[in-house]
Amino acid sequence: MDLNGKVVLLTGGTGSFGKKFCEYVFKNYKIKKLIIFSRDEYKHYQMSKIFPQNKYPIRFFLGDIRDKDRLYRAFEGVDIIVHAAALKHVPICEYNPFEAVKTNIIGAQNIVEAAIDKGVKKVVALSTDKAVSPVNLYGATKLVMEKIFISGNVYVGSKETSFSVVRYGNVIGSRGSVIPFFISLLKQGVDELPITDKRMTRFWISLKEGIKLVIHAIEKAVGGEIFVPKIPSCRIVDLAESLVEMFAEDRNIKFKEIGIRPGEKLHETLINEEESRNTLEDKDKFIILPYNEFINREKYKVYENLKKVKENFIYRSDLNKPYLTKEEIKRKIKALLPEIDFVNSF
Predict the structure, then answer these.
(1) Over the stretch 283-334, which tens digit does the pLDDT of each residue have?
(2) Which of 106, 57, 115 is nearest to 85 (CA)?
(3) Residue 341, pLDDT score
(4) Catalytic residue among 130, 142, 265, 332
(5) Binning pLDDT at 50, 70 and 90, where does residue 342 land?
(6) Is 130 an active-site residue?
(7) Under a CB-based contact definition with an 8 Å cutoff, are residues 165 and 150 in contact?
(8) Coil, helix or strand for 11?
(9) Residues 98-114: what's their mean pLDDT?
(10) Whole-number Å distance between alpha carbons of 312 and 286
(11) What separation in angstroms does the CA of 271 have from each of 133, 176, 253, 268?
């Protein structure tokens, strides 16, 4: 589905992803309207200064995805929904499990039901590596969210609504990520950086790359797929050393290993062994097809030219070699600096 001339709604649209999504869409498409749906009125106000309504086809809709009635009102006349709203902070979700369930699970169900009833054509949800073999509550809620969205394709009946998911790891440079945190510490003059575990690896994806994957899902998904990008990996210690060389080369910065937090993984996994049975490989992405027996499988003939991945395939950051070198990391950081959200990162 082409975005041109469409009404698009973005849940959780006042975060780092939402701002970059607006910028990308307004630059590359002539959409009819972009609705930002979020419960934070101050962030609506801040974002309206960046994208004033007298210059952009944008509307700010205050609401919570827990409130189904509000979603029914917001989805009126909407063609495309990108679902990015979630409670994401792992320790906070652990301490407030009922709240995480209400937003990440019940909220997802509300979106599916309202989208079907209001005749929305395409719905794409953002997921996370933490939904794969989850070890914390946040990951478990996102796994359930994925299942709800994929199974939503069974509930559409004769309607044209389709649901699909994009799944990737932590976005480098986004709010709460390690790069703005480390840079801030280095600019404060610290002589020590906290490293969780020197063995730790992570996938590397930028906000722009994540947005392009979402746009691809909007344009190409037939419903029921999980799209996973092919992206490089890096060692966290290499990332930290690269930042020291860039921002504190003249200082003797040491690294203090502080240990993995409860619910945190040593490596990111985007596709596990069990999912590999239903995973196809494309040039720049993997596509996990649903194994729900009630979904019409005829529509997946569009992927008949793609090959399945090898049996027992695992897509994990430490197995995804070669890793980025420190020179490659530095080049990527330099390219990312203009879009890093330092103000809202802590």
Answers:
(1) 999 999 998 777 778 899 999 999 999 999 999 999 999 999 999 999 999 9
(2) 106
(3) 60
(4) 130
(5) low
(6) yes
(7) yes
(8) strand
(9) 98
(10) 15
(11) 9, 24, 36, 9
Residue closest to 181 by CA, chosen among 191, 193, 189, 170: 193
Rounded to two decimals, the pTM is 0.95
Cα diameter, the chain: 66
Q: What is the pLDDT of residue 346?
A: 41
- Is there a contact between 94 and 137 (Cβ–Cβ < 8 Å)? yes
Q: Which two tokens stand for residue 60?
A: 């700010």
Are 162 and 122 in contact by the 8 Å Cβ rule? The answer is yes
Strand 162-168 versus strand 122-128 pairing type: parallel
With beta carbons less than 8 A apart as the criterion, state whether 124 and 164 touch: yes
DSSP 243-299: HHHHH-TTS--EEEE--PPTT--SS-EEE-TTGGGGEEE-SSEEEEPP--TTS-GGG
| Averaged pLDDT, 224-231 | 97
- Give whole-number Cα distances, 269 to 11, 26, 237, 256, in Å: 25, 33, 19, 25
Full set of structural domains in the chain with CATH: 7-169+205-230+270-315 (3.40.50.720)
The β-bridge relationship of strands 279-281 and 307-308 is antiparallel
- DSSP state at residue 58: E
Task: Check whether 345 has a pLDDT greater than 80.
Answer: no
CB 262 within 8 A of CB 92: no
Q: Name residue 61's amino acid.
A: F
CA angle 241, 244, 250 (to 5 degrees): 130
> DSSP string covering 325-340, please?
PHHHHHHHHHHHGGG-
